[in-house]
Amino acid sequence: MTVVENVPVHASSVSIRVEPVQARSTARVNALLDAASDAIHDVGYELLTTAMVAERAGASIGTVYRYFPDRVAVLQALASRNRDRVTHALATRLARDKPASVSAHIDCVVDTLVDVFRSEKGFRSLRVGDVLDIRPVASPRSGNSDVARIISDDLRERLGLRLDSAGRLAVETAVDVMDALLGRAFLHSGKGDGTLIDEARRMARLALAEI
Asked: Is 140 exposed, middle or buried (0-12, 13-18, 19+ CB in 10 A)?
């Protein structure tokens, strides 16, 4: 199983009050986000509060507000960190597995996402933020589109496929389908429903059948 590395959150892409330019500040921000993900795992994102983050992190509420103006900023930052970890893990797996077909690319993406669902607390609720449309306000990117871009780039570089607008849309659709079905697969199970995981593979392959 792929281990998701502790990719640090980037201050430029999230709504935080103080940029964590020093290692200690970066560690503090990640500790707060770890606490938030732990809380979301237990109660869901709807009930998350800044007070809950402070309590679980063993920090004062003032420390939370030093970096995040409100709970929405916490969710945005956590979604951004999730996005960075997913894209890093996917790029690493593609480089390692060297998929030689579109179908093999789908397997890499599904396997990567399954690993993240299983290893990242709270990911099943928030994922990379697209499900809530709370992407970081400082960036127009969405998490699923970043995953789609990595796939498209790898298809071009590894298989020589130059996708037109319809092809790129097909890849984005496949990623959205995988995200939705895997979200359901892990809704009530930390391991994931195998039938829905297999369905995510099948539907993604159908979306890319014309490529």
From this structure: exposed
